[in-house]
Amino acid sequence: MEVAVLYTLINIRVSARKEEDYMTQKTSSEFEKEFMDDLKKSTGKDLNTWMKIIDSFPGKKRPEVIARLKTKHKFQHMHAALLAGIHANAGKPVYANTDDLLDNQFAKAGEMRPLYAAFIAFVAKNFPTASLLPKKTYVSVLDNREFGAINIKPKELRIGFDLGDKPFDEIMSKSKLTGPMPRISHMMVITDAGQLDTKIIELLKHSHARCH
Asked: E-strand spans in the chain?
């Protein structure tokens, strides 16, 4: 669904946190539930009231809603993103199922969790407005539009990029990811956090620019 692109598993602005801190965070659904439970107490308005307030916004696109919640209503970015996602989901929790989708992808690849966490922190540091959305067979990396993808395999992570007709080489091969749109044309195999370097940043920037 197109609206799914509006959802954010968790805004990954964790660049200042250590990797081990990130790995011990609450799940996105726990964050969301905690946020919804505390909404009336912290803002003085319940969820239904906030949905009506957002309905009155001149712009309904997710970045517009987030920006207005931050500037006009003084929300922190994370909370603004959560509320915008709930509004896009017809006022219902967004993340009830996404944690299960991610856990299912790790079912046969549990040892990849530390590397996955390292990759998330790496993306957060270099793309602070990006977010992740687990889907049935892959994890989407998006900033309003999908510019990367992750397949979690038992011994590796396959990172997908939209690089058009960029030639393949010893690092970049034709994408074999399961799930993303065909425009995710290239992939890089990651087996160690030491591979997270400026080369990947350049590729992600190129992919991001093509998508936007």
From this structure: 10-11, 131-134, 139-143, 145-152, 157-161, 173-174, 186-190
